[in-house]
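wait is this the right file?? whatever heres the structure
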């Protein structure tokens, strides 16, 4: 292929670097799917990002074959198709019935019907350069939509002041990948490659800037609520009875003989607790294990 000629060293260099970085991007969800495999559950994750990623890789693979001089595009998108297909298979295996049906509909509608409609139209209606351009601009549209998807995560970070759902390593990898493929497109003089990566680069910079601003926000808010060495665990128990936790097994039969005035005192205490909007207990005022009765269920407060 001409791509390996010495006359195109920069194209080859940035294409190779783009392949390397993109491999890490494709493998970024791997820990998630390992966890899905271990727990035999999809853990609330959606299949749409992986279906769209597979669709994008299929389109870019088709575009690379039409160009005839884009070997490095073929290699990375072939890998992308394989990896995303594996993710989807694992998802389908452990997804509940409704999620499995939804994913199947997405696959049939997007990766089968829509893809083959584009394939048939461009193959039989368009010829030569027009076919390449048409497929290329479809790839641009899909890539822009994929790059725009993290905008919802950006808004969530600003709203919650937490970067829990926006890992820095993934944002950095996406930004670096956009830079490599932008340079590859520039030196190959292919606007269908460099245009979407301009958007990807700026969105990556925004994500990393937000990470720098909010990376400590969650820790600050948590420390203001309660010191780390006085953490209190709250456990909900489905029983209306009140008894010390450490004596629960010993005094089960003695609770039947509680006096009437003791029950009245407990009811008064219950009413007071229900009228309070918040229950505040200082760590030095709590015994090692204590109970507080509401109506039902019982709120057991234990020192961690």
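ok assuming it is, sequence goes like this
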């Amino acid at each position: 292929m001409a791509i390996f000629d010495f006359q195109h060293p920069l194209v080859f260099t940035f294409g190779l670097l783009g392949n390397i970085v993109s491999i890490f991007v494709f493998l970024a969800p791997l820990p998630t799917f390992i966890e899905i495999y271990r727990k035999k559950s999809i853990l609330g994750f959606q299949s749409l990002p992986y279906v769209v990623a597979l669709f994008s890789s299929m389109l870019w693979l088709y575009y690379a074959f039409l160009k005839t001089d884009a070997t490095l595009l073929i290699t990375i998108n072939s890998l992308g198709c394989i990896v995303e297909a594996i993710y989807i298979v694992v998802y389908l295996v452990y997804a509940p019935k409704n999620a499995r049906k939804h994913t199947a509909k997405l696959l049939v509608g997007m990766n089968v019907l829509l893809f083959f409609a584009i394939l048939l139209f461009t193959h039989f209606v368009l010829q030569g350069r027009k076919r390449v351009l048409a497929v290329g601009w479809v790839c641009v549209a899909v890539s822009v939509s994929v790059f725009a998807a993290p905008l919802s995560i950006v808004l969530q970070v600003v709203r919650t002041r937490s970067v829990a759902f926006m890992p820095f390593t993934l944002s950095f990898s996406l930004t670096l990948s956009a830079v490599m493929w932008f340079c590859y497109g520039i030196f190959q003089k292919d606007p269908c490659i460099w245009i979407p990566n301009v958007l990807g680069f700026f969105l990556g910079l925004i994500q990393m800037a937000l990470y720098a601003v909010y990376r400590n926000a969650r820790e600050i808010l948590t420390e203001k609520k309660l010191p780390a060495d006085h953490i209190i665990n709250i456990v909900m128990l489905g029983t209306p009875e009140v008894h010390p936790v450490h004596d629960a097994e010993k005094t089960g039969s003695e609770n039947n003989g509680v006096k009437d005035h003791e029950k009245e005192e407990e009811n008064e205490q219950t009413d007071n607790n229900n009228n309070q909007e918040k229950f505040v207990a200082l760590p030095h005022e709590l015994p090692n294990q204590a109970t507080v009765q509401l109506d039902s269920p019982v709120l057991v407060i234990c020192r961690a």
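The chain has eleven helices and three strands. so i think its the right one actually
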